[in-house]
Amino acid sequence: MSTLISAPAAAQSGLAPHGNVEAVYARITRRLIPFLFICYLLNFIDRANIGFAQLQMKTSLGFSDAVYGLGAAMFFVGYVLFEVPSNMLLQRIGARLTIMRIMLLWGLASSATLLVTTPTQFYLVRFLLGVFEAGFFPGIVLYLTFWYPPQRRARVLALFCMAQVAAAFITSPVSGWILKNMHGLHGWEGWQWMFFIEGMPTVLLGLLVLWLLPNGPQDAKWLSADERELLRQGLQGAASDGEASGGHGKGALAAVLRDPRIYLLAFGAFVSGCAGYFLAFWTPTIIRELGVADLQLVGLYAVVPNVFALFAMFWYGRRSDRRNEQRLHWTAAFMAASAGFLLLAWAIGNGSLAWTLVAITAGGSALVAATPVFWAMVTRYLERERAAVGIALVNTLASVAGISPAVVGAIKARTGSLDDAIYLLCALFMIAALAMALGMRKALANSGRPA
To answer: Which candidate, 270, 246, 265, places its Cα nearest to that of 379?
Structure first.
């Protein structure tokens, strides 16, 4: 990986004895990424557990597939409305207060889901969860640009985004165990215990943000003055090579809104979101409908594909980083995901649990492997002056994928199967892959970055 300041140059600038660029960035990664990884892990646990809750919650409360799907989608209504303002607020008040506020409120809202008894209450608590959580992911992506120049972000984003997959190792077996073994304990049903147990750790971790997360290099007490200067020069070098410094207000928003490639990137993220929420929301139901009645066994089967997906994300992110190329890597991954989902439709139709798990593994691995590559491409394309608004807007537009659970639920209710929804996803994968391969080639080439 290239360095922005050579060791001799650093020494001449008086940055000894801690002027080794690689050592400084390695220490930053050790300090920031494990904590942010855990935060994102909890984020995905609180998103994915709604899929397991439906195994009991729908029957307990008398919710139809359409009602449950709409309730799950209400999360994204609040999320979309408040995501860009949240990212701009991060610029104003700092990452520490913003992330603490997000985690405290979303943890409380997630836990409060246990009190739901009617569809209206379900819609309301899911909407509030979206409002409170809005800005977390794009805020972290933006926060990492405060520390790392463009040449160093792909691998860091891969390490951070692996929490998406790692969450399944906790969500699937733990949620299945809670649903099975805590049902009826002290008068609460299993799904109520699940929301409480999996929501409260987010509140506790949110409190730790004040002590563990500096707003930026200038507030990091574990960096020396020389090391902070090293980072400042590195980021200044990035600005001189094409990233401007500052600029996250109305002018940046207007520039981003006028950029057609923002909508192309958002479409790619939208398709990824639809497919991701399909797997998170419907995998437990698919496995159960193939004859697996034991809820704990459902959780164990659901986690198997994620073992392979975790390795795929790590390997593919490193591969893209070594070649310093994102566009074609992302395109290839989406084509592979389309093939995996096509196999899934065939496997479900033939009632094969084994082939269903193979298909989910193949399609899901390709899907998650594309994620860090995608955000590395986004942060390469967006100049620093547009990064705050641009990252948030791409993720906001993509969050419209939150309506997909309601759409899939309606399709299943109407047709009695998931086949049509899966075929639609296959088509979207191919459209997005071809559009990105063609639409981003000149954009990245003209900016002096690998196409």
So the answer is: 265
Residue range 174-195: average pLDDT? Answer: 85
Contact between 344 and 361 under an 8 Å Cβ cutoff? The reply is: no
CB atoms within 10 A of CB 321: 23
Which range is least confidently modeled, 122-131, 157-166, 251-260? 251-260
Is 38 exposed, middle or buried (CB count within 10 Å of its CB: 0-12, 13-18, 19+)?
middle
Q: Are 18 and 24 in contact (CB under 8 A)?
A: yes
When divided into structural domains, the chain yields a total of: 1
Determine the length of the chain.
451
SS3 186: helix
Tell whether 6 is covered by a domain.
no
Angle between helices 353-381 and 384-398 (to 10 degrees): 150
Establish if 9 belongs to a structural domain. Answer: no
321: in domain? yes
3-state class (DSSP) for residue 115 = helix
Alpha carbon of residue 13 to chain centroid: 39
SS3 call for 20: coil
Residue type, 337: A
Taking alpha carbons only, the member of 144, 169, 404 closest to residue 272 is 404
pLDDT band of 238, cuts 50, 70, 90: low
Does some domain include residue 433? yes
Question: Which range marks the domain in which residue 82 is found?
Answer: 19-446
Half-sphere exposure of 358 (CA within 13 A, CB side): 10
For residue 199, give the CATH number of its domain: 1.20.1250.20
Distances (CA, A) of 400 to 272, 296, 358, 372: 11, 32, 29, 20
448, 274, 442: which is closest to 363 by C-alpha? 274
Q: Rounded distance, CA 437 to CA 440, Å? A: 6
Using CA atoms, how far apart are residues 217 and 387, in angstroms rounded to an integer?
18
Comparing CA positions, the residue from 318, 306, 359 lying closest to residue 336 is 359
